[in-house]
Amino acid sequence: MQVDCVIGTAVNTGATLYSSTDTDGGTAELTIDDQGKYHLNIKKPVSLKKLLDTDGGVSGAKDAYNLTVTNAY
Description:
- The chain has 73 residues and is mainly β.
- Helix content is 0%, strand content 60%.
- It has strands spanning 4-9, 14-19, 27-32, 38-54, 64-72.
- Strands 1, 2, 3, 4 and 5 form a five-stranded antiparallel beta sheet that branches.
- A hairpin with a 4-residue loop joins strand 1 (4-9) and strand 2 (14-19).
């Protein structure tokens, strides 16, 4: 599974881009409820690694994070 995630805003405080590769693990479960809303769960974490800082990046941002998602829609 490929996941890209940007933290912060490059407008005035900087931003940090994190990315995974399909070999970093993680599994996603997607369901559609009776109202047509998509629900996403990532129970087995995806490893996100810092890829790029823009305008100095986010102060204190770690080099890597494990991402899980519970019932995002």
